[in-house]
Amino acid sequence: MTTVHIPFLQTGTLAVGGRLLEDEERSVQSQADRPSSLTKGHRACQGCAEALAARWVMDTAVEAADDKLIVANATGCLEVFSTLYPESAWKPPWIHSVFANAAAVATGIAASLHAQGRDDIRVLAQGGDGGTVDIGLAAVSGMFERNDDVLYVCYDNQGYMNTGVQRSSATPTSARTATTPAVGCQPGAPVGQGKSMPKIAMAHEIPYVATATVADLRDLEHKVRTAMSIHGARYLHVLVPCPLGWGASSAESIRLSRAAVQSGIFPVIESRAGELTDVQPIRQRMDVEEYLRPQARFAHLFKPGGEDALDRWRAMAERNIRHYDLLGERS
Amino acid sequence: MREVLEGSQAVARTVARCRPGVVCAYPISPQTHIVEALSVMARTGELADCEYVNVESEFSAMSVAIGASAAGSRAYTATASQGLLYMSEAVFNAAGMGLPIVMTVANRAIGAPINIWNDHSDAMALRDSGWLQLYAADNQEAADLHVTAFAIAEELEIPAMVCMDGFVLTHATDVLELPTQEQIDAFLPGYEPKQVLDVLHPTTIGTMAGPESFTETKYLQHLRFLDAADVIQRWSDRFHDTFGREAGGLVARYDAHTFDRDREAPGANAEDIVVVAMGSVLGTLQAALPELRAEGIPVRLLGVSSFRPFPGGALRDALGDSRHVVVIDRALELGSGGVLTGCVGRALAGTRSRIHSVVAGLGGRPILEESLRDVIRRAHSRDLPTLEFMDLKAGGIPRPPVGATEVAR
Questions:
Q1: Which CATH superfamily is domain B2-243 in?
Q2: pLDDT digits over B72-110, tens only?
Q3: Nearest CA in chain A to B199
Q4: ipTM for the whole complex
Q5: pTM recorded for the entire structure
Q6: To the nearest whole angstrom, how far is the Cα of B86 from the nearest Cα of chain A?
């Protein structure tokens, strides 16, 4: 979609830009009777962007599905912090099987509902980057390729945070993790930028692929609503800063998400059937340093010897800006 | 109607008549003919109201079955060997969540070395996965067992594997009489899940259980497994009463002289050598043993139909006063002996029984009648070791094998 990006001063409220919104424009979260699909009592860390994103995603999806939504969850933080027996923080019917199979379990649910003639019930699968980009990739790809009627949401915090912050294939270059320590001649994660799951999803030419962050929750909500208006395999990739894993203050999660977008590191895009259909332009350009410096996992970049890695980050941002025309120079 | 059918075709048609809601398919020899046949039926409409999902791996086959079962559908898949191992994480998970999926295992060896032929290593590797394991002796039983497997699994909320020997059964043609659609509809209750992902009554399935509740969860699973023996026997009896032939049960008893299957056959006598086996080798034994009887060797045959739960009580009853057991093992517990022998040994603990483990037919090695007779003759003359590798080729193999002392002890 083509949207006008204006600053949201009070996300989640009734007003935007000092103007009261019409009812239909208001966010799900602004409503007193919002679904609260991921409800209180869960054990997520303070500042966990995954919990925030999951709540917005789920509430929007539940509303779009008219309360008829079934969720399959991969193993990971989101599962562990929400369902410690005998408690559950989930209001919709929700299932967790194992780490790598959320997409396939969701396929099974969708197949069952179709066989029962219950196509009115929608299916959502979700997992972290480990469960999606690494161990669950085959199942996710299979679900895409079959075009199963599932919305898959990846909450990407760029590492195995639940097990104590180890590297995943979504971990970006030079990031310090428990298995890519900041020592030696090439500190942190090896050269590379992490596997781009949105590009992989687009290569499957599925009906809908989008990326989003918790810095722009209205955009996230819009994308979930768009995804829910479509049938077939859909993929939503949400960047979710992890205060623990990134070594940042709990209060920084939104700011870091914004810096990732505004520096060109995390392009916010939409795609239909493999074609790029929308790119959110950089509104207020930020340097990659503003994204990297608040994160302890990149502390070694700002010490002597860190210049090379910093250059790589700048190059990565430049490449994204060029490739996606994030500064709107071509349009 | 009696017809000539390949084992896989017979299983596929019977499964279709059990009206599964979701069938997941991934090819692996020697199971492939089953899902191929089901794919045709899904296209022709013979398999109605069913979603046939071509998945990208066995791991996803089981995972799709998990999702389908949790959403309220009767779910089915089939696999073998490496495929069973590849899906094993999800196999345990299905049992832990109490999802009554039915899966055909076309038993095949596990590599390395890679080998596509029959033994029981695959299902044995998952013997503690929390699934029922029901073994077919022939293709009629393989087809029939699927009907009772759905009934048993759904009553107990425990998933069930129907194990049939790869190639020996799956690819063999036989004269069979399949249960008709009407018969199955009358026999098999519709699937009514006790726990389901329901938008009107939402539940959370698959929560995390900590040290304070995990033991109790497993204990409850154990109790349900204990219940399973009665339920298996009841459905087997019901099948026998309805169809007039045997399918499954806990153990298979055989007549002492004709070696025909006979549920009324008395327990063995004190002087009897009882051959215990599982799967298609029971047919070979039926053919091989009468000659020994004629020679005056008091030999009896006993089949294990339900390997999980292991029917210790039924086995002891059928053994009667006999304390001399020869177990034909189709899977090896390295360094100790046959897997089935281990279970028989535990069931007979404290009975001072003489138990021989005869490891036979690994990786599709033909099990010859004469070799079986040779083993029994030697057992009779007290010349059979505790652990025997049947038809082990001489040459190139150290004799005595390295570590033989340890194994013999």
A1: Thiamin diphosphate (ThDP)-binding fold, Pyr/PP domains (3.40.50.970)
A2: 999 999 999 999 999 999 999 999 999 999 999 999 999
A3: A68
A4: 0.94
A5: 0.95
A6: 12
